[in-house]
Amino acid sequence: MPREIVASAPGKVNLHLGVGEARADGYHDLVSVFHAVDRREVVRLLIDGEPVDGPVVASMRTTFFVDQPGEDIDGPGNLAWRAVEAVVARAGVAVPRVHIEVDKHVFVAGGMAGGSADAAAALVAANALVAEYGDPLTTEALHNLAVQLGADVPFSLMGGTALGTGRGDELVEMLSRGRLHWVFVNPKIGIPTGRAFSLLDDLRHGNPALVPHLNPTALSQAITSDDVARVAAALHNDLEPAAMTMRPVLKRVLEAAGRTCRRALVSGSGPTVAVLCDNADAAHAAAGQLAEQFDGYEVFVAEGPDRGAVVERVS
Ligand code: C5P
Fold it and tell me: Which residues form the active site (predicted)?
C-alpha cells in the first residue's frame, strides 16, 4: 500500500477572457480561452496508518516558492484539503489518514488559478489513494467535484488549451499549434477574484465602452496559425480595466513589459502580468530585464500549453 502520492497541476493564463453580465448566483457568464503553462503546483499526500471511516485529512502544510501571503492558508477551508475530503466521501471508500504537503509555485491571488491547481492536483492524488483501497471515481465524477470546488478547477484538471463557457467550467478542448513562451510578473499585491468581477460591473455602469467581448474567434484562429504576432494581436481580457483600477501600478508594469516582448496583458483577474514572447530566449531576456527594472517583484518564465492535473508518483 502507498505511503506517498505526488500529483501536480498547471497554472493558467486566459488568452481571451470575455465577461458577460452578472448572474443571479453571483457568478458571471464567461467566454474564456484557458491556456495551461508549465509552472506547476505540487501536492503530496503522506499516508499514515490503517483505513478509517470519516474525515481523512489530519493536517496540511504549504511551502512557498513564491511570495507568502500574510494569513495562514493551511486548514480545512483550503481547496486542496476540501478536494481530498470530497473525493474520499464521494467514493465511499475507507482510506488511511493523510497529511497534505503543497509546494506553491503559482502566485496566491495572482490571477493564474494557483488555488484551483492545488485543488485539481489534490483531486487526482486522492483518487489514486482511493484506487488502492476500492473503486476510484470516474473522470466525470472528478469533474463534477471540481465544478463544486471552484469555477477554474475543472480547467486545472483538464489542462492544454480550452474554451470555457458558463462560469468558465463548461469546457471544450481547442486546437492549437506550436508553443507559447511567456514571462509572468507579479507585483505582489494580490487581487481577490470576486472583487475584480464586481468592480468590472461598477465600471461598466459608468462606461458604455466596456462591453463584454464574447467572441473569441480571432484568438481561436490565431492559435492554430503558429504565428506569435497573430496570437499577440488577438489576446484580450475584459477584466483588465478592473485590475488596473484596483492596482494602478499595473499600467506602468504593462507598458514596460509590453516593450520587452510582443504583448503584455493582465492574467485573469490579475494582478499578474503575462508577457508573450517570440521564443524561450526572448522570454528569458525579458524576464531578466523586468526583474532588474521592478526590483522586488516576482518574475518567472513558463511555456504552454501544458498538461492538466496528473499523478506523478505513487510510492
Ligand atoms: O469559483 P471561484 O471561487 O474561483 O470564484 C471566485 C469569485 O469570482 C466568485 O465568488 C465570483 O465572485 C467571481 N466569479 C464570477 N464569475 C465567474 C467566476 C468567478 O463572478 N465565472
Answer: 12, 152
Q: Are residues 186 and 140 in the same domain?
A: no
251 counts as catalytic: no
Whether residue 91 has its Cβ less than 6 Å from ligand 1? no
Say if residues 107 and 65 touch (Cβ distance below 8 Å).
Answer: no
Q: Which residues contact 315 (CB under 8 A, 6 or more apart)?
A: 2, 3, 4, 5
Domain boundary among the residues 126, 150, 173 is at 173
Confidence label for 119 from pLDDT (cuts 50, 70 and 90): very high
152 classed as catalytic: yes
Do 123 and 150 belong together in one domain? yes
Residue 314 maps to a domain: no
194 C-alpha to ligand 1 centroid (Å): 5
Which ligand 1 atom sits nearest the alpha carbon of residue 150?
1
Res. 61: pLDDT tops 90? yes
Q: Is the domain of 162 the same as that of 28?
A: yes
Cα dihedral value 281, 294, 35, 247, nearest 10: -160
Q: Is the CB of 114 under 6 A from ligand 1?
A: no
Structural domain ending residue among the three candidates 143, 173, 203: 173
pLDDT in tens, 260-306: 999 999 999 999 999 999 999 999 999 999 999 999 999 999 999 99
Question: Residue 126 pLDDT > 80, yes or no?
Answer: yes
User: Are 157 and 188 in the same domain?
Assistant: no
- Residue 104 has phi, psi (to 5 degrees) of -95, 110
Give the residue numbers spanning the domain of 202: 180-304
Distance CA 267, CA 20 (A): 18
* pTM of structure: 0.97
Q: What confidence category does residue 133 fall into, taking pLDDT thresholds of 50, 70 and 90? A: very high
* Preceding amide of 55 cis, omega within 30: no
Looking at ligand 1, which residue's alpha carbon is closest to its atom 19? 27
Distance 198 CA to ligand 1 centre (A): 10
Give the CATH number, domain containing residue 35: 3.30.230.10
Cα 110 to ligand 1 centre (Å)? 14
Residue 69 domain flag: yes
